[in-house]
Design goal:
globular; single chain; mainly alpha; Four Helix Bundle (Hemerythrin (Met), subunit A)
Length: 131
């Protein structure tokens, strides 16, 4: 899959996350579904970042953490955004490897900020790809 296709897949996944986040007073089932959408959105986004870094910057990264660090190093993310992206990696890891009601609630509360960061990141990657 080329970079443009990866970016489009990530944007499509983000749209599903935004849709889920728009539900007012979600049930536990809806909350958990929203977290699932975050998980697959995260996967699509970091893979798009990996493809972009290789195609545009000639850099290779093997993990989400290394990709987001590299995006900081090349100036796509500022230091605060890089820290937020690394915190997002931690949230993703928690959703995949553990289940705890308190953790789910805490992560769910951070999802709007994660979605905002993802949206900004995808816009920048698209702009720098075509510009």
């Amino acid at each position: 899959m080329d970079v443009k296709a990866r970016l489009e897949a990530a944007a499509t996944a983000l749209a599903t996350l935004r849709e889920a986040l728009a539900v007012e007073r979600p049930s536990r089932l809806e909350r958990d579904g929203t977290i699932q959408r975050f998980e697959y959105t995260f996967e699509a986004v970091w893979k798009a970042c990996r493809a972009w870094l290789e195609a545009v910057e000639g850099l290779q990264c093997a993990s989400p953490r290394s990709c987001f660090r590299s995006l900081g190093e090349v100036g796509v993310l500022d230091p605060e955004e890089t820290a937020a992206a690394l915190a997002m990696v931690e949230d993703r890891n928690l959703t995949v490897h553990t289940y705890d009601e308190r953790v789910a609630e805490a992560i769910f509360a951070r999802l709007p900020a994660h979605a905002g960061l993802i949206e900004s990141l995808l816009e920048r990657l698209r702009a720098r790809l075509s510009g």
